[in-house]
């Protein structure tokens, strides 16, 4: 018996990419059957300017941040051909839970099977072409399609096709011969984050994430748990941002220069900006050409300024306190922030060239993640993180509005501050150039 109770998600899951799609709404992919090529969208001069040494280089031109055709090329070659963060594990907490996702225009369902393993499938029925599930559901035994009632198990296998031959039990039909199983999408869970590989050439997630795994190899990751509020709900929030995904990515951890101007709290800090009296950086750049980009610094910097907290420290495998703060993006849309007593995970899921949804959640040492007495400290940590995001997002939206000015086509770099931004721009161009005809 199929349980068709609809799972009512908390408000943090009510954003555009999670909500059930309105009837007749087309995806980005459906609107762009005749894609333009990179040659159509980027001149040879613009490519050369991106490739020039950083002192003379320019960023992508403004059309790369506002144009639907450019975005669609990115979806095909720069976003789907990478492991993409699409949600958090607590979105699909229990066996039989199904969550409907619009992942950069790909309709997908996330399904927790009876063994607790998360599976992902393209949300399209091989028989009638309708969505397999229109809505997110909770605690189902099987998946019954809404259009003609084909029935799938939680591993995407077609198990029943009632009335296929006119009889209720469809006794004459060879289910296996119908070749009607759901089409799976490579799906992984790491850091309580759900990753999908939507492209044609999947690589192991461990390969793409090796630089970040290496970076945190001393941290005792199994001690980390998602923090909860007074109702037991995850410490998380969601924000819509009217800005291009590259701008959001670059702002979060790649752009160090902005902190002293955008963030009210950091602006007052004696450690702002991140240089010493001789003009040397007080942080180490993380500048891996595969797209692990950000900064790492001793977490004694700023610790006293930001006030005391009773939350236990993030610990290393040897039991010592972790002393390295890290704020880093992992291409294309995931951010890891390791601070003294919180590990913050963020993702940004674009829904077009000029907008998307950012989601953030906080993890703590297991001794502090659910302890009721520490709930005010967890709330304060979440509030501080949200305030920083709101400040960042205001400036990202400002940049996006200014992209529509014809006065400036592309930006130049500060070689001192912007080497990671330069790496990011060239990495994206590398990926887009794979679409060039051979
Ligand atoms: Fe910022």
Quick recap of the structure?
The chain has about 450 residues and is an alpha+beta fold.
List segments where confidence is low: pLDDT < 50 over at least 5 consecutive residues: 1-27
CATH superfamily of the largest domain: Naphthalene 1,2-dioxygenase Alpha Subunit, Chain A, domain 1
Strand composition percent: 15-25%
Secondary-structure element order, N to C = HHHHHEEEEEEEEEHHEEHHHEEEEEEHH
Number of helices: 12
How far apart are the first and last residues' alpha carbons, in Å?
Answer: 53 Å
- The quaternary state of the protein chains shown equals single chain
* Biggest pleated-sheet summary: 8 strands, antiparallel
Number of domains: 2
Bound molecules: fe (ii) ion
Query: Whole-number radius of gyration?
Result: 23 Å
Q: How many strands appear in the DSSP assignment? A: 17
Helix content: 10-25%
- The CATH architecture assignment of the largest domain turns out to be Alpha-Beta Complex
CATH class of the largest domain: Alpha Beta
What is the general shape? Answer: globular
**CATH topology of the largest domain, what is it called?**
Naphthalene 1,2-dioxygenase Alpha Subunit, Chain A, domain 1
